[in-house]
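Risk register update: the risk of archive-format incompatibility is retired. Evidence:
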Amino acid sequence: MARPEDHSCGLGPALRVLGGKWRPAIMCELHDGSLRFGALRRRIAGISEKMLFEEVRALEALGVVRRTVIGERPAHVDYALTSIGLELNRAVRTLAEWGAAHGPAATSAPPSRRDTHPAPPG
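Archived output:
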């Protein structure tokens, strides 16, 4: 059953996966390959161990992150994006590029100057 916030354009499900402060950062750090938990934590400034654990588990449950236990001694755990995680991450990277190029101007301009194009007739 569709949720009321599921828009016909598909943004609802994508935004639920990306929801929160840390998930986009986790996905960005995993874009180029798998990382151990400690390495992932060091790459994301300000995230606590508990929060990282909760968020990677949630992303794993959503099917965008894969957790692999490596049975070496000592054993360790690697985290990587799944194929659908990589697909979603490509879209996230496009948004990040837009934010880097236009974010400061878009968020600091007075509201009357943000909308330089007339609204489409509707």
